[in-house]
Amino acid sequence: MKVLVINAGSSSLKYQLYDMRDESVLASGRVERIGMDSSIVTHEPVDKPEVRHVSEILDHVTAVKRVVDMLTHPEFGAISHLNEIDAVGHRVVHGGEVFSNSVLVTQDVKLEIRRLFDLAPLHNPAHMMGITAVETNLPNVPQAVVFDTAFHQTMPNTSYLYPIPTVLYRRHKIRRYGFHGTSHSYVSAQAADYLKKPLESLKMITCHIGNGASLAAILDGKSFDTSMGMTPLEGLMMGTRSGDIDPAIVPFVMNKEELTLNEVNSMLNKHSGMLAISGISSDMREVTEAMLDGDKNAKLAFDMYAYRVKKYIGAYAAAMNGVDTIVFTAGVGENSAALRKAICEGISFLGIELDEERNAERRKDAREITKDSSRVKVLVVPTNEELLIARDTYNLVCQANLS
Fold first, then answer.
1. Which terminus of the chain, N or C, has fewer Cβ atoms within 10 Å?
2. What residues are annotated to the active site?
3. At a CB cut-off of 8 Å and minimum separation 6, what does 340 contact?
4. What is the pLDDT of residues 179-223, one digit of tens each?
5. d(CA 257, CA 263)
């Protein structure tokens, strides 16, 4: 079975085609600047040269048409005919309280995704455009949706409820949902496999650290708590997001600076975090380089970032009454040895003995970065959210065929 995985944004679309016999990637790519006359399609077939086209792509229907044309192209395609695509899996950011697992797309599922537009106005509408575009181009191919929030639906109410009037939860479902669920789910299972221990036996903290960042406390193999909240703004300091702040700052700054709701929302989401403190960049690589060159603001941004990750790890260790394993993943977590060192050396009281040589290694496979004698094992595990989406889609279609 071949599964096409799609991650649709408002003006972009990423894709990967998997052969589920061995879970190999046959081709991947992206469509950028959808809605413009200079849209860019980048297609990367395995064992063939990359292909890049610039043309007008005004909507997602056309974007998916270009993708399937690339996949079936006689020269640089990965398959001979569209009927080789057996299923399509989509990433959907918000599943609310309705979806605790991945599901096949039905009319009822699409209706629920639309009802959740208010909770993810920048993401869910784009995901629906992707689903609709596939229906148009591949009308008889089953589709599945995998939700970022689903993994965190196991959190107890002590973790997900906010201490505000409960009528707001009942009326508007204001609560902690958490995100990056596909990544936290994937790397926690991979970490357990690496350690050769049942996931259910481990108290684990997974650190998905990229431009957006979140931590998850995983207890008995399930999400027990996570740092992102009702939206991805809560929690850690991030590339351009503030993370946790005093809520009273919002009305105070709005009054003093005469900002609108949209302006303060943009400030907290796009102009805060490492970018705001460093004054240089939201990219950890650039901030670290500037810090090593003696830039004090870059060092402050780096130290604040590491400090806030350490605080959450300590909090989750307390919440679970201990921790066995800490996992770093995503772009920064997998590649910044300096950040991992700063975090681990600051929480050595937990029983972490960092091995600096292991930590400095640059590899693409799962690995331990603590000494063999370390009571708490710290791992670096590459994430692969697309593969998890492909697996869920494959399993759902197989189950439906059997029934």
1. C
2. 148
3. 328, 333, 354, 359, 369, 378, 380
4. 999 999 999 999 999 999 999 999 999 999 999 999 999 999 999
5. 10
